[in-house]
Amino acid sequence: MDTKNSTALQLKKKATKPKGKINTFFVSLYDIHKFILRFFKEAFMPPFEFKEIVRQCYEVGVRSFTLISLTGFIVGLIFTKQSRPSLGQFGATSWLPSLVSIAIMRALAPLVTALIAAGKVGSSIGAELGSMRVTEQIDAMEVSGTKPFKFLVCTRVLATTLTVPILATYTGFIAILGGYVNVATNEGTSFSTYMQQVFDPLTFTDFTSSLIKSIVFGFTIGIVGSYQGYNSTKGTEGVGKAANGAVVTAMFLIFIEEIVIVQITSWFR
Amino acid sequence: MDKPKAPIDYNNAVITIKGLEKSFDDYDVLRGIDLELYQGENLVVLGRSGTGKSVLIKIISGLLHSDKGVITVFGQDINKISDREMQELRIRIGFSFQNSALYDSMTVRQNLEFPLVRNRKDITRAEINDAVESVLDAVGLSQTINQMPSELSGGQRKRIGIARTLILNPEIMLYDEPTAGLDPITCIEINELINEVQQKYKTSSIIITHDLTCAKQTGDRIAMLLDGQFQRQGTFDEVFDTMDERVKPFFDYNFIR
In b/e form, how buried is each residue of A96-115, taking b as 16+ CB within 10 angstroms? Predict the structure, then answer.
């Protein structure tokens, strides 16, 4: 090859190559946008990987179940315990069950569940897919005429989207039980009375907003974990970065989504 | 072991490459590759590490895109076909990866079944079982059917990787460093397997390697990749019967012939 031409070509490439963090940010944003569109394009087109979706739902549930149970119970117990002195100053401790239920159903249950799932499930998806990428397992699927995106990404995103709302509902009930332990210990309230006081202030909007939030959080955890893992590079270092990126990005987005959804819900109250 | 003779149809090129170029950032890996793979032929692409050998077969299989050039596989220009056509084409091409790339969360059976059940919708359970047993028998590893990839040796993993590609009855096989990281005896076994696949499945193959024993034992033709271009092509003896200072050291460090 002519050396002069070759050097000119290299210089041209250098000149046209995008530079800087801002460029990288916009390129990443474009890639994520394409990744999400690809998910919606492939997830609802046959053939469907039902068996793999069920397996992934089971994985997501099992991975988070113990931690969510424990955390949910403690959140309910501590929240009730910490709120008691403030309400006690106004002689309003009888309002504790209502306060607990509103706080838990509207905010704490979906948020706590999503943060735990982001840590446990999101990182695991990032690491698993990242490892498959660097060991060429995804390429192997691609060259054998199968669709790795559908089998690996769509199934995981659908699994988190379906499972996180179930886990959030479960966390809510466990947290309410945690609150009951505190209320029963201090006031001797019966379980049926406590439950009645818990459900009285809740509205249909509370349940739907909580459900919508959990679905959005579940989708975020799945898509971020999958994106990080599926596009992982640079060997084992890349796998670590994918796992880490999956958790950090998902948590950040969950808080942003929480603010947005709370604002939107407040317009309907 | 000498390379067994295979019937090669020199009038029928299954892969034709013209003027292929590929760069990564500022590094030009392939700088104008011209190549033809004939029906029934084992073509060995030799070259030092980092010369773009693996990049070449990844472009052929559609895993990477070329910057320039025309790549025709079974008469179809892979840069111009749709995703669906590419997917159909890939079923006719087997790709054996350097590190085998077995799905480590699946057993050997599940690894072999995976491409089959997703590409042959009307296949029955009995046919799947027959196909799995047949390819495992072909690579001599029937006893590993229920094992996990982590329980297999390097040589066994290579064989299962080849079996997984054979299950779709490919017409072209692409081997990426088939003997890398294996002991000399296992290397010879893998070379024999490559020749058996050529004979039994009537495949045309591109074998990427820097192992001269592998090249000599499996190649009907050798192409030497240097500085992003094929510098020499021919039989093993023709390629190395040279005083070319870029080719000679490659041969001098190996002790066969």
Answer: bbbbbbbbbbbebbbbbbbb
* Tokens linked to A49: 């990987």
Q: Which B residues 142-181 touch A at CB under 8 Å?
A: 164-165, 168
Q: What is the DSSP letter of B181?
A: T
pTM of the model: 0.86
Distance (Å) from the alpha carbon of A141 to chain B's nearest alpha carbon: 8
Shortest distance, CA B188 to any CA of chain A (angstroms): 24
Task: Select from A10, A13, A139 the Cβ nearest to the Cβ of B101.
Answer: A139
Would you say B207 and B44 are in contact if contact means Cβ atoms under 8 Å apart? yes
- The verdict on a CB contact (< 8 Å) between B26 and A14 is yes
The CATH number given to whatever domain includes residue B58 is 3.40.50.300
Position A225 scores a pLDDT of 96
Domain ranges of chain A: 52-262
Residue B4 domain flag: no
Domain range for B228: 9-252
Question: How confident is the model over A234-261, as pLDDT tens digits?
Answer: 788 889 999 999 999 999 999 999 999 9
Q: ipTM of the assembly?
A: 0.90
User: Which residues from A are below 8 Å from B23, CB to CB?
Assistant: 13
Q: Encode pLDDT of A49-67 as tens digits.
A: 999 999 999 999 988 899 9
